[in-house]
């Protein structure tokens, strides 16, 4: 038995699915600026959680 054009059809379907994907966000920031922005957002999120729960938020990393 041969696969016929099954592979070719699947490639076409995969290409059609790929077209709908969004491109990565390019906001013109350097990697350092992106990290700083993300760090501030995470700190604000942790502070908000502490304020609402009354518990201390941790990063989940254990110190050695």
Automatic annotation (TrEMBL):
InterPro entries associated with the record: SERF-like_N, SERF1/2-like
Family membership noted in the UniProt record: Belongs to the SERF family.
Small EDRK-rich factor-like N-terminal domain span: 1-33
Highest rank taxon of the organism: Eukaryota
Protein name in the entry: Small EDRK-rich factor-like N-terminal domain-containing protein
Pfam family membership, one: SERF-like_N
UniProt biased composition (Polar residues): 53-64
Disordered: region residues: 1-64
Basic and acidic residues bias locations: 1-15, 24-51
């Amino acid at each position: 038995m041969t696969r016929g054009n099954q592979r070719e059809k699947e490639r076409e379907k995969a290409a059609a699915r790929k077209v709908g994907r969004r491109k990565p966000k390019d906001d013109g920031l350097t990697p350092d600026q992106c990290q700083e922005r993300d760090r501030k957002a995470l700190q604000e999120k942790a502070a908000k959680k502490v304020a609402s729960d009354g518990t201390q938020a941790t990063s989940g990393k254990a110190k050695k």
